[in-house]
Amino acid sequence: MKIHEYQGKQLFRQAGVPVLDGVMAKTADDAVAAYDKLGNKIAVVKSQIHAGGRGKGTTKENPDQRGVVVCKNADEVRAAAEGLIGKTLVTIQTGEEGKEVHQVYVEAGCDIARELYLGIVVDRAAMKPVLMVSTEGGVEIETVAEETPELIFKEHFDPAVGLEGFQVRKLCKKLGITGAAAKAAAKFMPAICRFFVDFDCSMCEINPLVITGDDQVIALDAKIEFDSNALYRHPDLLPLRDETEDEPSEARASRSGLSFVKLEGNIGCLVNGAGLAMSTMDIIKYHGGQPANFLDVGGGANAEQVTEAFQILLGDPNCKGVLVNIFGGIARCTTIAAAIIEAGKTVGFEVPLVVRLEGTEVEEGRKMLAECDIDIINATDITDAAKKIVAATK
After folding, report:
1. 3-state DSSP call for residue 338?
2. Is 164 annotated as a binding residue?
3. What is the pLDDT of residue 301?
4. Distance of CA 199 to the CA centre of its chain
5. pLDDT beyond 90 at 314
6. What domains, with CATH codes, occur in the chain?
7. Where on this chain does ATP bind (predicted)?
8. What is the pLDDT, as a whole number, of residue 234?
9. 353 within 8 A of 384, measured Cβ to Cβ
10. CA pair distance 252, 156, nearest whole angstrom
């Protein structure tokens, strides 16, 4: 789950991670009121969307309107807010379609002496979180990794222990941070690592991380993603989700307990189990097709969830066929077959439907599908299923 910068900074502040004062605004009047409240001559108006590269992004309506604007008075704040709110911002991460800006964050300015980069992700190979820093703050980290990877410095840390002092000193030396700034970094870096672990983050990025003229270390950005599988431990985070930022079908699937990711192909996939879903997409590609989605209905899928899954799949105008690939382990094949039949009555299938069942009570499940009045193409195994759905959608 992603959240906005202003929400991330609220959490940072509570966790003891230094940030600047700021106020979220949904109208130009609110933005001006926020500027007056901050009482700082310099303020920055930042578009709030779930995408990076906002500073270099521009709106579709006005190519000269940047997604982040430094302002020196209330009139400039109003102009920036009016130029962003309700407009579509296009950045390197949004694609050409862009994202509509529903609110801006008005933040007090500061004396920036240096801009750095800081990010934390989980290193699956090392089975630990890894803190990454770079001298190249304000630049897309993907560009740095591609062109100057030697400028990215990494330290893995034990989530139970956190980032240790010697690791901070090592990173400060590589970044050229000394004196009072190094003392500030000695508090900042362990604090952000604790935040990452305590909130079950999957990614936490600060770009730029700044050192001010008076040697303070401050998070000038907050790009945070939480592990959705751990959100049950953080019910207080759920209200922070902004469904207007999500792909509508993905938000709908989430409300039904389905794991769904929309893709650009034309073959809908309905599978139980993430590994099986990945394999299904791979074999569709192998046989010349293009999957339209990743969809895991889970091991205990019921008729309501299967029906909702079909409605989501068939609601995509690009979907020209559906492949159902089910292994009946927790859920018996007869249960899945009954759910498919019920979904067929509710939804109706106007595109080719290929079904491959395997597992407990598979013969009974296949018989149920063969005897129903739904036009189903039965498949014996995953390869047979992939070949049939690719042929049926061409």
Report:
1. helix
2. no
3. 64
4. 15
5. no
6. 21-108 (3.30.1490.20), 112-237 (3.30.470.20), 247-393 (3.40.50.261)
7. 46, 53-55, 107, 110, 115
8. 95
9. no
10. 36
